[in-house]
Amino acid sequence: MLQILENYSLKNFNTFGIEASARYFVEINKEEELTELFMDPQWLQTSRLILGGGSNLLLVKDFDGLAIRINIRGIEHRINHNEVFIEAGAGEVWNDLVNFCVARDYAGIENLSLIPGSVGASPIQNIGADGVELQDVFRSCRAFEIATREFKTFTKEDCRFGYRDSIFKNELKEQIIIVSVKFKLSLIPNINLKYGAIEQELANRNISKPTIKDVSKVVSHIRVSKLPDPSTIGNAGSFFKNPVIAEEQFQRLQSKFPEVVHYPAGDSMVKLAAGWLIEQCGWKGKVVGHTGTWKNQALVLVNHGGATGEEVYSLSSQIIDSVYTKFGVLLEREVNIID
Ligand code: FAD
Ligand code: EPU
């Protein structure tokens, strides 16, 4: 029998560490429990918040609906020639899956080491880091469609992955609940050193022929040096996406700001480093009340202790305004705003 809790604190379920509660809260440990839950029609009419590790959301206020925490576990793996087929429950911790694979020399997700959160949330924003995105290894996911109470399979094409984007952040937002994800990895490593800092750190360690274990260690080291650890400083990683603008707009911007940090983004588009834009506006390391931006990474907003969701949201609005005023570039929040 499912236990629905009332007025439940979500402080331990969001890495910002914001004190906010859910009107109702339920934990799902098996996929059949979703069918059981939605047999009760009241939940079809109630607003819902699907929760993994809470590492990519900001609770602006108490959530007046049903928070559904997904805790479905299990990792299955099968090898066929040099290909490795993995299926993991949505409630598995993403980095546990990475460690599981790296320990067995299953290559493909080592660059995604130490990203917080759950396997089930990994397709939502097509997690990415250090030159690799989830879509590079994703095969399909199984999800419960709330309206029909049926389980459906979404292939890679169905998911419409983009940079920090998928169909689940758009048309299907809060409509489906991912219960498991399938990946295809390889026994033949394809070491990806596109992200320059990895190559530099490998050189510092005199490693000329890196294994995927080396890559995983180096990626983890770089991340720890740059990003705040949510267990001590509340945060949700990059608060904004890196903006992608048209080549023409970029040329105008670069003529005024020759140092602007940028990368080619295909189709005559250019991606800008939001962290640079924010730092240039004087925000880096700035403390504003209980909140602020991280001293080593201006793109990360932090809770220095006791911040409310409204405070963090208001800081993010101030940052958007000042970046727009100085550069004419509109930042888009990456973190899911729950209000
Ligand atoms: P949650 O925060 O719980 O949820 C995020 C969204 O997904 C919500 O909209 C939620 O409703 C939805 N959701 C969650 N689970 C499910 C499910 N099973 N079915 C349907 N919807 C669901 N992200 C990157 O891409 N790259 C990084 O390098 C990176 N670095 C980070 C570093 C730090 C220190 C932190 C705190 C975060 C970082 N993030 C990064 C963001 C975060 O780790 C990812 O977005 C992660 O996938 C969120 O997982 P979660 O389980 O915590 O999701
Ligand atoms: N920069 C600054 N000042 C700053 C921060 C960055 O000038 O305060 C400039 C530097 O020139 C730096 C460049 O921006 O070289 C890029 O910074 P970084 O390598 O830290 O990466 P990012 O673009 O800020 C993105 C992702 C991260 C991911 C890293 C590594 C987004 C929104 N963020 O950050 O993902 O870990 O690359 O691949 O794309 C997340 O999504 O939560 C996240 C942490």
Structural class: alpha+beta
Give the spatial strand order of the biggest sheet.
6-7-12-10-11
Output the CATH class name of the largest domain.
Alpha Beta
Total of domains? 3
Distance between the termini: 30 Å
How would you describe what is shown here?
This protein has helices at 32-37, 42-45, 94-103, 156-159, 196-204, 212-226, 247-256, 274-280, 309-327, and strands at residues 5-9, 21-28, 48-51, 57-59, 63-70, 75-80, 83-89, 128-129, 132-133, 138-145, 150-155, 176-186, 234-238, 244-246, 262-264, 269-272, 287-288, 291-294, 297-303, 336-338. It has 3 domains: 5-70, Uridine Diphospho-n-acetylenolpyruvylglucosamine Reductase, domain 2, CATH 3.30.43.10; 75-186, Uridine Diphospho-n-acetylenolpyruvylglucosamine Reductase, domain 3 (2-Layer Sandwich), CATH 3.30.465; 234-338, Uridine Diphospho-n-acetylenolpyruvylglucosamine Reductase, domain 1 (Alpha-Beta Complex). The two termini are 30 Å apart. It is built from 9 helices and 20 strands. 25% of the residues lie in helices and 30% in strands. A hairpin with a 4-residue loop joins strand 15 (262-264) and strand 16 (269-272). The model has no long low-confidence stretch (mean pLDDT 97). It is α+β, with helices and mostly antiparallel strands and 339 residues long. The protein has a 5-stranded antiparallel β-sheet. Bound molecules: flavin-adenine dinucleotide and uridine-diphosphate-2(N-acetylglucosaminyl) butyric acid. Uridine-diphosphate-2(N-acetylglucosaminyl) butyric acid binds next to strand 13, helix 8 and strand 19.
